[in-house]
Design goal:
Elements (H helix, E strand, L loop, with lengths): L1 H29 L5 H47 L7 E7 L4 H12 L2 E8 L5 H7 L9 H14 L4 H10 E5 L8 E6 L6 H15 L5 E4 L9 H6 L3 E3 L5 H11 L6 E2 L17
Parallel strand pairs: 1-2, 1-4, 4-5, 5-6, 6-7
Antiparallel strand pairs: 2-3
Length: 282
């Protein structure tokens, strides 16, 4: 709707520019550069263009009112659609780096009745020598992708957490919620794509560990994210929401966490649709 209003406004500007150009032509004709018939032609064209500008102005006003009605509808229906959508669900929120989407995600979870049962902020880049040194007593965990995979599994499934206990002091800069209880779903928020090999290997393993199994896992970013990470998330088998800073994005996130079919949703070119299919909240 906004794009259409901008399009109408642009057309109005074009027609106004044409009118100005014709008026200049009429002014020149008044000084004797063109004959009377050409002047009448200019005047007729001005009348037609002015009529078109008036029509576009009326369309713009109508679209503006329609946009306001749509916004009011969204504001009134959003709470009803979100209420109890994830009531009692225990969700893990895993943040890689620092991202402005974190607050938006937490608002969505609160609105849907979910609990952020596990919150971890992973420091990047990952120091490969430090991680390997911490795990030198754990055979089979020399590769960073293996470490990332196992760490994700320990965070989500509960039980004993030997890898998390060993590496969390090195790579986790902020945490809330204790491990040991199963998680119902997980969200990934990521500031940017890794720019070094060690971190990329760790992140690949982490995503693989998150997406292994039947738990819903969603990558979330805002509409103004500097660089979209949707392609990398989808390559790892993670569903995505690219507009979590909007009401529809928050609803899409809640629907996916609640078990809607996986996919990419939002407003960007990578989105399959704006929203998953909306089912009644339990």
């Amino acid at each position: 709707m906004l794009d259409l209003r901008y399009h109408v406004a642009s057309l109005s500007a074009v027609f106004l520019a044409l009118i100005v150009g014709i008026l200049v032509g009429v002014g020149i004709s008044g000084r004797g550069f063109v004959d009377k018939s050409e002047r009448r032609n200019f005047e007729n064209r001005i009348a037609v263009l002015q009529s078109r500008v008036d029509q576009l102005g009326a369309q713009k006003s109508l679209l503006t009112e329609q946009g306001r009605a749509d916004e009011a509808f969204a504001q009134q229906t959003y709470p009803a659609l979100m209420r109890h959508r994830l009531e009692g669900e225990r969700v893990a929120l895993i943040v890689l780096g620092s991202s402005g989407a974190t607050g938006e995600v937490q608002q969505a979870l609160a609105g849907a009745g979910a609990t952020t049962a596990l919150y971890r902020v992973v420091k990047t880049p990952i120091s490969s020598p430090a991680v390997r040194k911490a795990l030198r007593g754990s055979p089979g965990f020399r590769r960073l992708d293996t470490v990332g995979h196992e760490l994700a599994q320990e965070w989500l499934t509960g039980g004993v957490t030997p890898i998390s206990d060993s590496v969390s002091p090195l790579i986790v800069q902020e945490q809330r919620g204790a491990t040991g209880k199963p998680i119902d779903a997980a969200i990934v928020v990521q500031a940017s794509a890794p720019d070094d090999r060690a971190t990329q290997q760790f992140v690949n393993g982490l995503f693989d560990g998150l997406s292994t199994g039947s738990l819903p896992v969603v990558g979330a970013e805002t509409t103004n994210a500097a660089a979209s990470l949707v392609p990398s998330w989808r390559a790892s088998g993670i569903s995505t929401v690219d507009d979590v800073d909007t009401p529809s994005g928050k609803l899409a996130l809640a629907l996916l966490l609640g078990g809607a079919p996986s996919g990419s949703f939002g407003v960007k070119d990578t989105a399959e649709a704006a929203l998953p299919r909306i089912e009644p909240a339990p």
